[in-house]
Specification:
Elements (H helix, E strand, L loop, with lengths): L4 H11 L2 E3 L2 H7 L4 E5 H5 L5 E7 L7 H12 L5 H12 L7 E7 L3 E6 L2 E7 L8 E7 L2 E9 L6 H12 L4 E3 L4 H11 L4 E2 L4 H13 L4 E5 L5 H6 L2 E5 L5 H6 L2 E3 L6 H15 L2
Parallel strand pairs: 2-9, 2-11, 9-10, 11-12, 12-13
Antiparallel strand pairs: 1-13, 3-8, 4-5, 5-6, 6-7, 7-8
Subcellular location: Cell membrane
Protein name: Metal ABC transporter ATPase
GO cellular component, one term: plasma membrane
């Protein structure tokens, strides 16, 4: 028997390294006319590195003490920024104290008790920097900042160009990061509609606003913070290799081999299959 076109398309997508979860999901990929992309871990590789450690002058901490404190609070987090902070502390040979009462707030940061004091690491929204900047506080008092940068994925500019060609409009960039870090990635990928400092619910609102205006939105993301937007979109695609479990579960399709260029490829596969479905 010949396979129905949408099932062949799923098999084909699998050969490209994209796991499409159902025939309906395959079909919806071909219906999209607008794309919205997360930045960190989607257009960028998601393996940031700490590039600066800056204790505040009136804190009692030096660089190593600040980094060790942040790493202790981040130790239990799976967020790419957390992994980078812990890796930086380890590479300096610093001792990472055990932490208790760990909590993570998606799109915001983490808090934990270290040495009897409450330490948080998270958004520094007044950051005026090309880098991602996170603020470290101890018992509510700011003690320093860390700057982190992430490399653009090799396929990012070609992918945004292909999505623009497929939909007739350039993708929208939706990120929790600061405006200048977002602008740096937007410039490198030819995007002009950039929305920064978004909370997870703001990403949902951005997707819903586009859909209320009649658009069918494809959202591509990787983080726990992206899960609500993946669910709200007409079609949600998650980056699989470093993606959070929640994003992978929520998405309609998962990019298993981490190649961003497969996003436009599966949209084309779906469109071709839908032409064959009568
Ligand atoms: P994005 O939308 O760019 O993928 P997130 O929504 O995951 O990013 O995070 C948005 C911002 O929240 C980050 O740029 C950072 O400032 C802060 N943040 C989130 N999680 C953490 C964490 N574990 N440690 C430090 N900062 C964090
Ligand atoms: Mg992300």
């Amino acid at each position: 028997a010949t396979m129905p076109p949408l099932l062949s398309a799923i098999a084909n997508a699998g050969r490209h390294g994209v796991l499409v979860k159902s025939a309906v999901a395959m079909e919806r990929l071909g219906e999209i006319d607008t794309t919205a992309l997360d930045k960190t871990g989607t257009l960028t590789e998601g393996t940031p590195e700490v590039t600066a450690v800056r204790p505040l002058p009136d804190s009692d901490l030096d660089e190593d003490a600040l980094l060790a404190l942040a790493a202790a609070a981040e130790h239990q987090s799976e967020h790419p920024l957390a992994r980078a902070v812990v890796a930086a502390a380890r590479s300096r040979g610093l001792r990472i104290e055990p932490a208790a009462d760990f909590t993570a707030t998606p799109g915001q940061g983490v808090t934990a008790t270290v040495d009897g004091r409450t330490v948080s690491v998270g958004r520094a929204d007044d950051a005026d920097s090309d880098a991602t900047v996170v603020l470290v506080t101890r018992d509510g008092t700011p003690v320093g900042t860390l700057a982190l940068t992430d490399r653009l994925r090799a396929g990012a500019p070609a992918t945004t160009a292909a999505l623009t060609a497929l939909t007739g409009t350039a993708p929208v960039l939706l990120t929790g990061d600061n405006a200048r870090a977002a602008a740096r990635v937007a410039d490198a990928t030819g995007l002009t509609d950039v929305r920064a400092q978004l909370l997870p619910e703001d990403k949902v609102h951005a997707v819903r606003d586009l859909q209320r205006a009649g658009r069918k939105v494809l959202f591509v993301g990787d983080g726990v913070n992206d899960a609500p937007a993946l669910a709200a979109a007409h079609s949600g695609v998650a980056m699989g290799r470093a993606g959070s479990d929640l994003a992978l579960e929520t998405a309609d399709a998962v990019i298993v081999r981490d190649e961003l260029a497969t996003v436009p490829a599966v949209v084309r596969l779906s469109r071709a299959a839908r032409r064959l479905v009568v």
